Amino acid sequence: MKKTFFAATLAVFCTSNVQANSVGLYIGGQIWQREASGFFGDKQNPINSNLKKTHQSNYFVAAEHPFPFLPNVRISNTKFNTTAKTNVVQESKFDNETSHVNLHVNSELDASFNISYIDYTLYYQVLDNPLFSFDLGIAARDFDVAATVTETTNTVTTTSDFIWDVEEHEGHDHSVTEITDTVTTDNKKKSKIVPMLYVATNASLPLTNLSVFAQGNVSLKDDYSLYNYQVGLSYRLLDQPEMDFNLTVGYQAEKIEFENVNNLYADVELKGAFVGVIAHF
């Protein structure tokens, strides 16, 4: 909540600068279906199967100004989550001093992996003309990650005597079965600010309302392997002096890899198609 309030406050500040100095304001959003692969969890019991597809969204606001030595500002918010379910069955047999013991353990793991981050980006327009633009900058990624794993375990223990004496055990079962159910939940959370390199480019197709674009971020710290990129096509639906309005479609991919962040490990890749809109005032 505090991060969202801060981002909204900064966005309002940027908007006021737009009105005062006639700079450009960009507001946009995307919806995309992500296919997840990889693993997450603790090091001993990673969750690495049946990661579900999810529909997610993100949005951004950016302000560009005519002052050459001051960076432009971009704020983007991204949230996504994935869930997984894994079933593990273990069978074992052993003998104690008086009996045979058969052990059957059925463990069902239900897991959720949630990541949200806000990118605060300062960037320069290295090239900017009607046909081609290239932006380069630095972003601070305010990064929150949480994983919850609930394990439901059903244990069936069957004990059989070595010697079956009918007279001694008359009226009693030869085998004894015990069933035990346990449920445990493990929650791991971590917040971190990660520096990122920001790159974006756009090329207009002559004599059309179409343009192709690409954008990406990559982490600058060795203990985090984070990157995301998108490539797509933009169609200018509205072109007026007061506002441009564009529809976008494309492909997006994201990688999250880190080790021992509050005893949390992750190596997750998300990818999929997206649709979006961008308004330029």
Characterization of the model:
The chain is mainly beta. It has 1 helix and 11 strands; from the N terminus they run αβββββββββββ. The protein has a 10-stranded antiparallel beta barrel with strand order 1-3-4-5-6-7-8-9-10-11. It starts with a helix and ends with a strand. Mean pLDDT is 81; it is low at 8-21.
Topology:
Layout: H1 2-21, E1 24-41, E2 46-47, E3 54-64, E4 72-95, E5 99-128, E6 132-161, E7 175-204, E8 210-219, E9 224-239, E10 244-261, E11 264-280
Antiparallel strand pairs: 1-2, 1-3, 1-11, 3-4, 4-5, 5-6, 6-7, 7-8, 8-9, 9-10, 10-11
- Shape call: elongated
Low-confidence stretches: 8-21
What order do the strands of the largest sheet run in, or round the barrel if closed? Answer: 1-3-4-5-6-7-8-9-10-11
State the end-to-end distance: 27 Å
Q: Radius of gyration, Cα only, in angstroms?
A: 28 Å
Strand content bin: over 45%
Q: Mean of residue pLDDT?
A: 81
Using DSSP, what is the number of strands? 11
Number of helical regions: 1
- Describe the sheet with the most strands: 10 strands, antiparallel, barrel
Helical proportion, percent range: under 10%
Structural class: mainly beta
Order of helices and strands: HEEEEEEEEEEE
